[in-house]
Structures are given as structure tokens and as C-alpha cells.
Write a structure and sequence with these properties.
By secondary structure, the protein is mainly alpha-helical. It has a domain at 33-103. It has one helix and no strands. This is BZIP domain-containing protein.
Length: 136
Amino acid sequence: MTDPYYGYSGGGGGSSITISPVLAGEENDQAMMRHGNDERKKRRLVSNRESARRSRVRKQRRLDELSSQVSELRDTNQRLLVELNHMITKHARIVKENSQLREEASHLQKKLSETVVMELEEAEVAAAAAGTLEEA
């Protein structure tokens, strides 16, 4: 039996292998193709690694930006909470002051009404006394 790639004939006590020049050229071409494929594979591997590295750098940059944004937002939130607490305190003080002023206004209004009533009564008494004096 003869192998198409090797000039091997099996039989008898001895064996001999011969490689024909045509077959050796084909093997050389195949080896060069494998070498070319290996080179392409290596280039693709290097390219993929570089792409992955760039992706990691972009991801890290984005993570750093988001971390910075979180820090800024926390600072802003803290500042706004302090401001809110000041406003709540100020509001409570103004509500208390407003209540006191309403009480004072009510008291003054009552006092004014009493004064007007007293003056009217005094005027009526004075008018009545003047009328009594004129009749006499």
C-alpha cells in the first residue's frame, strides 16, 4: 500500500520512506500557511489584549469620574442639609414671633376698643351732665 504523501510501500522485511519533491513543496506551503496563521493569531491576540487594556482604562476613568461625582453630590447634600436645618430653625423662630405679634395686636385692639367705649361713655356722661346743667 502506498501513502499518497509518502513513498512508503509496506511489505517485506525492510521499510523505506521517501518524500517526493512535489509533496515536500506542499508541506512547505502548508507550514508557511500555518506560520502565517500563527502570525495572524498572534497579532489578533495582541490586538485583543490592547483593546481590553484600553477598555479597562476607559472603565477606570469612568469609575473615577463617577466617584468624583458621588463625592461632590454628598458634599452638596451635606451643605443643603445644614442650610435646611437653619431654615427650619429660622421658620420656627418667625412662627413664634408671628404668634407673639398676633397676641400683642389682639391685646392692643381689645385695649383700643375698651378705650373707645370708655371715651364714648364719658362723652355720654358729659353730655348728660351738660344737658342737666342747661335745664337748671
